[in-house]
Automatic annotation (TrEMBL):
CDD domains: PBP2_Nitroaromatics_like. Residues 9-66 form the HTH lysR-type domain. It comes from the Bacteria. Belongs to the LysR transcriptional regulatory family. It comes from Zarconia navalis LEGE 11467. GO terms for molecular function: DNA binding; DNA-binding transcription factor activity. This is LysR family transcriptional regulator. The lineage of its organism: Bacteria, Bacillati, Cyanobacteriota, Cyanophyceae, Oscillatoriophycideae. The keyword Acyltransferase does not apply.
Amino acid sequence: MNSMHDKPIDLNLLHIFEAVMIELNVTRAAQRLNMTQPAVSHALRRLRRITNDNLFLKVPSGVSPTPKALELWEPIRDGLGRIRGAIAPPAFDPASSTQTFTLAIADYTAALFLPKLLPILARTAPKINIRVVPNTNINAAKLLEHSEIDLAMGRFYRSTLRLRVQEIMGDRYVCIMRKDHPLAGTRLTLEQYIKADHLLVTLTGEATGFIDEQLREMDLNRRIALTVNQFTLVPELIAGSDLISAMPLRMVERSLLQTDLQITELPLEVAPAFLQMMWHERQQVDSAHEWFRTQLINIAREM
């Protein structure tokens, strides 16, 4: 029986394996490699003989990796990346680059990062362009898969094999209300909290959030009187109403209406508001993309 230890492996086969894993479609992988589809299919047959596994199974959208392919994916991907970097490190000069980066981010994230990013670009990469599109947390994966964006920032509970996710910043949730709200000035109890009328920021359009899931586990529920899809609207809406809302502390602290708001602790334990970056595997070792991710990570570390 053949095994991967019996004879040397043609590096081109691993390169083709990588392309098929990224695209999950033999035709697109062939286009990516500038090869014919029969040539890619032939290479896959050779790999199947070497690994004694089908590696990919046909599905309506293309192919789906077998458990063996998933097992091989990480070491092959990382190994090829190290080889490419050692043999021909890609050159990227931010000072002369005219590249455009398209980001999918929510208004809150844009308000945190863009004012700090623009001076960096003006100083070190004056010809680089930035395009921002809305991130709903449910459209990011599709946009990345279709190369419509370069990077998404938000909280991503589901990704795919071909998407990389990195946590770059954490924040904590607090409860906000207007200064003269009936509940202001006292320690908020769970009973008071669930009886109040709530404002919810929902990027997905859903009428409930993660706090509602926690409350359901306690056989409790709250009234969400208003949902919006923009964080920056919240302070003004809260300051002029009897609604209360759970918000990341950083967002509240940078609001011009902070002095009109009462900030209090939530009466239940809530997971931190982690901010993540997500990008496609095809850009993992792209030097320009790596440089851009580094700028965002550095900004997050300084907050």
